[in-house]
């Protein structure tokens, strides 16, 4: 049995690799026949390997995952701002006068992990800092609600807000005042509705008169005001030259708006 015959490689199938300025190596690319099968005796090209991009020295996925995991455990255990606010409120109320460090130290000891899962000193330090930060936020919330007061490092208990009998009476007076305002506005709205209906009726009446053969007689334009007095009363009238100002002098008179006659 003879050795398999190797097919010569055409010149176009060779690739020269250059390093710097000279020729260093020649790589043989297999020749493919018409059937798509490489010829025997020809080694396949080496696989290409791409290097990973350089990582930034500021990126530390392990630490970020560790911090997020501990943050999730803190939230999962219910150590939120609401619970810390209640704990801080109870602590300050029981003492009357205290400091931020005293409250924080007691809560750090209270919320320490009893199972001992946090074996790493870094993890324990992170938990302590997280508790102290939440205590600081809770103190600010209680100060904003005027439950406690802070003078430099001293924290004093002022008390929870409560409702006194005077507050109840003030609320009743305010409720009665607003109810009266609503009733007045409702009456005024009813009056406006009546005026609107009267004006609509007047418009329809004038339209009928204009369309009739008789036609409307001379009338008074809206708006106007009627001054009514006794038939035997003495009335003195003075009118300005531009007919814009009229002065009446008589006793026991009554002014009637035009809307009353619609």
Automatic annotation (TrEMBL):
Matching SUPFAM superfamilies: E2F-DP heterodimerization region, Winged helix' DNA-binding domain
GO cellular component annotations of the record: cytoplasm; DRM complex
Name recorded for this polypeptide: Transcription factor-like protein DPB
Region described as Disordered: spans on this chain: 1-74
Organism: Anthurium amnicola
Domain Transcription factor DP C-terminal: 166-261
Similarity section: Belongs to the E2F/DP family.
Biological classification of the source: Eukaryota, Viridiplantae, Streptophyta, Embryophyta, Tracheophyta
Keyword Secreted tagged: no
